[in-house]
Write the structure tokens for this entry.
Amino acid sequence: MQTILILGATSPIGAALSEQFSNGNRIVLSARNHVRLIAVADRCIKVGAIAVRIAAADLAHTIQPIIDANSEWPIDLIVDAASAASGASRVRDPDVAPDAMQGIIQADVLAHLDLYQRLAQLNRKHPDIVFISTVLAIVKTPEREIYSAVKRLVEIYLEKLATSEPAVKVLIFRIGKLIDPDRDSQSAKTMAARVQHELTAGSLTALYGMGGRVLIWLNFLHPHVLNLIVRILRIFRG
Ligand SMILES: NC(=O)c1ccc[n+]([C@@H]2O[C@H](COP(=O)([O-])OP(=O)(O)OC[C@H]3O[C@@H](n4cnc5c(N)ncnc54)[C@H](OP(=O)(O)O)[C@@H]3O)[C@@H](O)[C@H]2O)c1
């Protein structure tokens, strides 16, 4: 049995990951929306979690509820899918006010590094980490540079961790397709199963989705062509 912390457990992706990792494990669920966390907790129990605990926290302000949960159930694995600047919100760089930047950096970078390090100190062992990232962390696209940059910063921390502490399992899982349960109810579940597969296989990085491979290929071919195609696709997707 492991104790597994799911950050961003209230999104469809986070909920699918919570269920995927439930069987035979203790699960700590975190995000801001308490009502949705309770619904996800019920589903985790139904699919075989031994016990579930909720540690609601706004990462822009505090990680303390998660530290408190860890004092009773030391966390072995963090599945980190929380993001204030994420894909589904579709926030574009021009929509981000300058004074919102600090909150985004706190919620999407500093809180994550602080949490990883505090848990490592408290448990005298760095937890294993699955970081749900995006292909946009490594491919520059128009008006998504804030999202891209914050994801990439956490990736860099984890790449360094994997080198300096080889005993810690690290998986950087880059999603390269739109996971939208309104269009495809199975999409988040299929992705979550792949995350667990890659973790078991011991991968350091994984790219999920053909769209991501095409983006990387187009970027290699010519970044301006990539930018044009992304702009056109966004006009059609709205
Ligand atoms: N959907 C996609 O196609 C796609 C593509 C590439 C990568 N991803 C990655 O997959 C993950 C989930 O994305 P999503 O598209 O499902 O996004 P989403 O619906 O916006 O989910 C973001 C998650 O982070 C939590 N969150 C946001 N701000 C927070 C804060 N200040 N403190 C604590 N928790 C916070 C949200 O929960 P609360 O609102 O309850 O706090 C939610 O659970 C993200 O890491 C994203 O980068 C998604």
